[in-house]
From TrEMBL:
Name of the protein in question: IQCK protein
Coiled coil: none
Pfam families (alphabetical): IQ
CDD domains reported for this sequence: DD_IQCK, IQCD
Cross-referenced PROSITE patterns: IQ
Amino acid sequence: VPLEAEMLQPFPMEQFFSASAAQYQLPVLGEVPPGEPPDPKKCSPREYLEFYIFPVLLPGLAELLHEAEKEKCFEGKRTKFIPSDFLTEWLYNNNPTRKDESFTELFSIPFVKDWLKDHPRPPIPLSLLLSEEEASILIQSFWRGYRVRCDSEIQELRKWQKKLREERHITEVVKKFWTKQEAK
């Protein structure tokens, strides 16, 4: 049988799950399944996930989805919201061992600081930081400026200023001025 034919067959998911999905509910943060918690070093992977990982991770993922909805991530292709950053900050601040400590922002978390020293991030593009209104104002002001600079009287003024700058060596005068200011 060719590989493509095997890959297109329906996948029998029932063999991987012993119970139907309707039986599962998201746990509340810190809430573990009933019963004695197993030894984390000797228990099965399923028990480890159910007792130690899911009670913290699943509420974090639910919060992540709520925050993504607030940030309007489902409305467009691009967004400034970085899910892994949100989840990292949320998990760090909701860690049961940090119950009495205050909220810590992502870039103040010690291991994040260490990571970013060696792996600096590129800046977020301006198109993601501006709201639609701010972007439209910026574009309109640029367009108005362009239209004004195309005016023949403005072109004549700009040529005169350029000629004046070259005749009086303005760039050198400015450099001398700043070296004097820095020397003070």
